[in-house]
Amino acid sequence: MDLGIGGKRALVCASSKGLGLGCAEALAAAGVDLVMNARGAEALEASAEAIRKEYGVTVTTVACDVTTPEGQAEVLKAAEGVEILVTNAGGPPPGKWSDWEREDFIKALDANMLTPIAFMKALLPGMIDKGWGRVVNITSQSVRAPIGVLGLSNSARTGLTGYVAGTSRQVAPFGVAINNLLPGIHDTDRAVALDGGASRAENMTPEAVRARREASIPARRYGTRQEFGAACAFLCSQHAGFIIGQNLLVDGGATNLTM
Length: 259
Description:
Blueprint: E1 9-12, H1 18-29, E2 33-38, H2 41-55, E3 59-63, H3 69-78, E4 84-87, H4 102-130, E5 133-138, H5 151-171, E6 176-183, H6 189-202, H7 206-215, H8 225-235, E7 247-250
Parallel strand pairs: 1-2, 1-4, 2-3, 4-5, 5-6, 6-7
């Protein structure tokens, strides 16, 4: 399918690896020029160079911490005028309700709610002026069905979801579509970290933890960054203009919901 977005520009946050990289690769395959961001300069540039060679698109890299005002300003300068925004940030650490203090919630809110909001606030006016834009926020399956050990993520990402629900309907008349992608467990560093935590807590091998988790997923496996990226690219495409303010689960059926 021709996604109809060749020649457009996209900012993809946290895109040196994992789900963000999957999104960047899928957009590049559709002919989209990229602004890629991550904290680690070496991994970011390696991923960007691989995309340049594979897809022949222009890739600008900005290595910084986007939870800081300075980092946000640097990224937004490079991304001025983009038609597509993909927000993404690593999830806060797992734990127990009694572990978290106010500063832990502030960090989670900064990374997983307030930074995506800041980027939308800065870039939506340009999309509105052009009469076309796409925003995809990578959140989590936990906004539909909370995960106990991910209380920080549950809180911050659900807050972002509420913001998107209202904002998406305000900008839709101007040709701008905002939606959220809700990943379940995918074969990324985040999965390794979560499995490792469960392994230590339950005195199991990481392999046993993964096998148990895979058995709980109807698809009986972890997702891949490529299939997640394809879902993102579709929501960024010309074909997704009538999809507004939705939360698309990409979790192999793991979230047990009727609707």
